[in-house]
Amino acid sequence: MAGISRVAYRNIESGKSTPKVSTLQNIALGAGIKLQDLFVSVRTMEKVRFRALKKMHSRESILIEVARWLDDFSYLEKVLNDSKEYKFQALANRLDSLPDGEERAKFAAKEARVTLKLKPKEPIRDIAGLLESGGIKVYPYKLTSDKFFGLSVAKDEGGPAIIVNVWDRISVERWIFSAAHELGHLLLHLDSYNIDESVENKAEEKEADIFASYFLMPEEAFWREWEDTYGVPLVNRVFKVKGIFQVSYKTVLYRLSEKYGNGIWGRFYAAYKAKTGKSLGIKDEPEALTQDKFQHSPEALRSREPNSLLSSHFIEDRLSRLVRQAIEKDKITMSRGAEILKIDLGSMRELVSSWV
């Protein structure tokens, strides 16, 4: 795209050769950025939790983009004098004195819901908006990889922030669970936020998974919904409950296995194959994200058999609001707003014209 050979590009990248200004302009054009962006230094974040089962070659580039996003977000908060209070600090301090394990994770989930003023049996409908109301920045980041689901950044680095991979081949249920999972890390494992650590800690991952499960599906509410479907076939029953709480069918089965044992998995898979004639693959999410349906409200969700989730169930909107306010108050240009929202200027003009 820059009109140069791979060898020439590699020599520039490694510092073996010095490019002409015209070559740099072509590289910037090919990368879809401004020329000056090639020379802007990016701060190195330290207190980040970014771990994976396998080595990720895109790790550094993700962290660079997250750092820029956080800096843009913080800049808008400052010029507009519009910062959100982080509501979870007191809870995180309390949890720090409790012993690690399953009970701490469940307690944290219950208290996190109290902090957000959720009712004991209330399903979560807008997790991105809910987290933002608690003072956490949310970044839906699209990476074409199923090895990366999310990461989180500590308060000291311009956060607290949660980044979720919203690649369209990852189900919306997984997006939601990843956001809750990272919230669990922010509350339970803040002392392990270290950019140099890249290998998953199995005990901490399990604790964050338990937190996410009980945060999204409170114990009493889950069993009430499960009992309400008492006479329904197993597969339909699981899908009904999964739709209510907007979680994966696996999250429901994990909860059921705590009471009925691991045999519930085999029963479910056998029943699903008998019902559909197909076997479920490891990455399959039946009755998941479809682009052609929209569920308008919690009332609509509760009134019929839920059968899908949409990308509209995971939308952050605080940054977009700050950009609009900054443009309307002449704090930033429309072009700068497009850069922050990572859209082209034409799309930005369309967005501005749609504001009511």
TrEMBL record:
Coiled coil: none annotated. This is HTH cro/C1-type domain-containing protein. It holds the Pfam family Peptidase_M78. GO terms for molecular function: DNA binding. Belongs to the short-chain fatty acyl-CoA assimilation regulator (ScfR) family. PROSITE patterns: HTH_CROC1. SUPFAM superfamilies: lambda repressor-like DNA-binding domains. Residues 1-38 form the HTH cro/C1-type domain.
